[in-house]
Amino acid sequence: MARSDYKTKLVNGERVALTEAEIDECVARDEVAAAEATAYAAVKYKDDRVKGTFKEDRTVDKAGYPDLGDFADAVYWEKKGDDSKMTSWVSACDQVKLDHPKSE
Questions:
Q1: 2, 42, 64, 84 — which has fewest CB within 10 A?
Q2: Do the domain assignments include residue 85?
Q3: pLDDT digits 0-9 by tens, 18-50
Q4: What is the pTM of this model?
């Protein structure tokens, strides 16, 4: 918000003008929040890859990485000569990376 957006506050149900120090505090708080949001946006893809992304109703839109239990099973079967599960698991990981690319 712009500095001019901060004018009053409620004190005991009455509107009271903000002091310059209070306005400075509000502006500084907003600047910190904006910087934190920008920093998180740069690494959000990591959360999306692990947890998946969520729709507004908080249901999962796209799943994150496949389960590590599936990876352990794929390693076992790969050692037994069947690499189909490992190929499938790696393909699923590749799809997650395509769905959630790194921010530049």
A1: 2
A2: yes
A3: 899 998 998 999 999 999 988 888 887 777 777
A4: 0.48
